[in-house]
Amino acid sequence: MPTPRFTMEHLSAWILAVLFFLGAQLVQPGNGRASPSESAYSSPDLNGTSETTSHPAIIHRSLAGRHRLEFRAGYWDSGRHQRLSPHVYIQEKTHVEDLVGAFSYAYWAYDKMATDITFKGLVAEVTSIDGASGESESAVIITSAMFGIRFYPVSSALSPLRPYITASVGPYLGIESHKETENHTNHTVKTTKTLGTFGGYLGGGLDIQIGRRLMVGVHAGYNVMADFPETLGIENNYSGVELSAGISLLLG
Predict the structure, then answer these.
(1) What's the rounded Cα separation, in Å, for the pair 74 and 80?
(2) Neighbours of 181 (CB within 10 A)
(3) Does the residue 115 lie in any domain?
(4) Domain containing residue 246
(5) What global pTM score does this model have?
(6) pLDDT of 3 higher than 70
(7) Where is pLDDT greater, at 14 or 186?
(8) Which among 32, 44, 60, 129 is placed 20 to 30 Å from 12, CA to CA?
(9) Which of 228, 226, 224, 229 is nearest to 239 (CA)?
(10) Do the domain assignments include residue 126?
(11) CA end-to-end span of the chain, whole Å?
(12) pLDDT of residue 188
């Protein structure tokens, strides 16, 4: 059965619905800015009366107005799982696929809402083959620059655990390179193809704040893109599930 593909109409409606929901949460009362009641708590003294004192955990955990630099790495199921048919004259030397890495910058306008820009790279496939007549090397790499929002529906300055949902959109750039070398003539032919398309990402995860400057997290989501104008490798679409883990430096 053929794998379903998303059209640009599907993608636009999907992303706009998520961004509308996140924007609606932003304008609701209690959007994450600390209030006087959140910056202090009452504790009973020895005589049974209440005494208001500052809560250090709130100052320590609040993210409103802060910045983040994050690096994450993991797996992107691009749906490309080609394998060579067994042949006595062909030996696959190396084969690497579906590795993803990302670097992002984020800013918390509110404790429950952050905007971010993410630069992501997928190694869809890197293959090196020894054949009877020579060697062949090929690679398919997908990169993207995504602009998005991360919303924390259950965010408390008293807890280091911050579950979230996220949505982003942006351009995708696909690069395919191929090199063949003949054994007898030592003649080498190199080709490179670069194509662009547009897409988005929808997912969620859990951020865990460790102290004031450090955060770790796990992420899961789906990358969706429109078809490339031509094939890269054997595919013209690398939409798929992404699973990754990351570490962040908090500034401000």
Answers:
(1) 16
(2) 15
(3) yes
(4) 8-28+67-251
(5) 0.69
(6) no
(7) 186
(8) 32
(9) 224
(10) yes
(11) 51
(12) 83
Judge contact between 218 and 205, C-beta under 8 A: yes
If you search the block for the tokens 């982003």, which residue do you land on? 168
pLDDT confidence bin for 139, thresholds 50/70/90: confident
Q: Which two tokens stand for residue 244?
A: 């990754």
CATH assignment at residue 18: 2.40.160.20
User: What is the percentage of the chain residues whose pLDDT exceeds 70?
Assistant: 66
* Helix (H), strand (E), coil (C) string for the chain: CCCCCCCHHHHHHHHHHHHHHHHHHHHCCCCCCCCCCCCEEEEECCCCCEEEEECHHHHHHCCCCCEEEEEEEEEECCCCCCCCCCCCCCEEEEEECCEEEEEEEEEEEECCEEEEEEEEEEEEEEEEEECCCEEEEEEEEEEEEEEEEEECCCCCCCCCEEEEEEEEEEEEEEEEEEEEEECCCCCEEEEEEEEEEEEEEEEEEEEEEECCCEEEEEEEEEEEECCCCCCECCECCCCEEEEEEEEEEEEC
Token digits for 13? 């409606």
**Cα separation, 158 vs 197, whole angstroms:** 42
pLDDT value for 125: 79
Evaluate if residue 94 carries a pLDDT over 70. Answer: no
Instruction: Quote the mean pLDDT of the chain.
Output: 76
Question: Are residues 99 and 114 in contact, defined by beta-carbon separation less than 8 angstroms?
Answer: no
In a domain, 2, yes or no: no
**Overall domain count for the chain:** 1
